[in-house]
Amino acid sequence: MEKAVCSKSGCFFLYIRMVEELSMMDKPIMIFLHGGGVSSWMWQEQIEAFKEGYDCYTPDLIGHGTRANEQSFSMRESAREIISWIEEHAHGRTVILVGFSLGAQIAVDVLSREPDIVDIAVINSALVMPLPWLYLMVKPILPLTYPLLKKDWFIQLQAEKMGIPTHVLEHYAADSKHLQKGTLHTMFQENLHYKLPDTFQQAKARILVTVGEKERGIMKRSAKKITNAHPKAAGFIVPDIGHTFTFERKDLFTEMIKCFVEARELPAELKEIR
């Protein structure tokens, strides 16, 4: 603690800062894990919605965003980083983990590796049923596709398809142009080979699993598999949405998280997975 040898006004502001820091230490932690090919900017609206009541953390995953020039993406290392961060900062506080797509796979991995470290988890559009044949089909095409990620017209086309708002298009374009070829390759490889770990069922967290109604059948089957694998998991389908829930229906997504975290009834338009 700093010694109080300052003026009255200086001591007052020091006191205020200390109170703010202590208040932050009491807040639940909310961690948001972004999808592949984007970065932490995708959670801007959610951070704004939750920052008053929660200590929010939105890391850039290995090989993404501000970390594009680091080593190629690794799901295992990404999970280890999140676990280490929680161990360093949680100090007994409630930990809420929210993941989208690739980030949702990492969230599943965190829960499976350290079953006691997360209290509440939201798993949105996580593929947990391996598709090695699809990877073998995609692998030869990736070197041909990679240059397109640097083209403005292709970036614009992808952004429209994903429902990315225009006010964050600059962030999406920067991420696309800075993505390394090695990261693109390992990201597809690990994404399409990921399998739900047997230890997932041991996680102590309450878990909400969601998938878009318009997503591919294997994504819906993955959501059902995750839901059925855990005794405290609830699975829901989001009507009229593909793999774009967090972008196209961000208000619904945010409200859903609030309801689940506070153990309230979820928005009525969500359809329970059966």
Total beta-strand segments = 7
Span between termini: 55 Å
Strand content: 5-15%
Residues in helices, as a percent range: 40-55%
Radius of gyration: 20 Å
Q: How would the global form be characterised? A: globular
Task: Describe the fold and architecture.
This protein is α/β, with parallel strands linked by helices and 274 residues long. It has a domain at 27-129 and 196-272: Rossmann fold (3-Layer(aba) Sandwich). It has helices at residues 8-26, 44-50, 75-89, 102-113, 132-138, 142-145, 152-162, 169-178, 181-193, 217-229, 245-248, 250-261; strands at 29-33, 55-57, 95-100, 120-124, 206-212, 233-238, 271-272. The chain has a seven-stranded mixed sheet with strand order 2-1-3-4-5-6-7, sandwiched between helices. Strand 1, helix 2 and strand 2 (55-57) form a beta-alpha-beta unit. The model is unreliable at 1-5 and 12-23 (pLDDT under 50). InterPro entries: AB_hydrolase_1, AB_hydrolase_fold, Carboxylesterase_BioH. This is Peptidase. Residues 31-249 form the AB hydrolase-1 domain.
Keywords for this entry:
274 residues; alpha/beta; Rossmann fold; seven-stranded mixed β-sheet; 12 helices; 46% helix; disordered N terminus
Write the SSE topology:
Layout: H1 8-26, E1 29-33, H2 44-50, E2 55-57, H3 75-89, E3 95-100, H4 102-113, E4 120-124, H5 132-138, H6 142-145, H7 152-162, H8 169-178, H9 181-193, E5 206-212, H10 217-229, E6 233-238, H11 245-248, H12 250-261, E7 271-272
Parallel strand pairs: 1-2, 1-3, 3-4, 4-5, 5-6
Antiparallel strand pairs: 6-7
Helix pairs in contact: 3-4, 5-9, 7-8
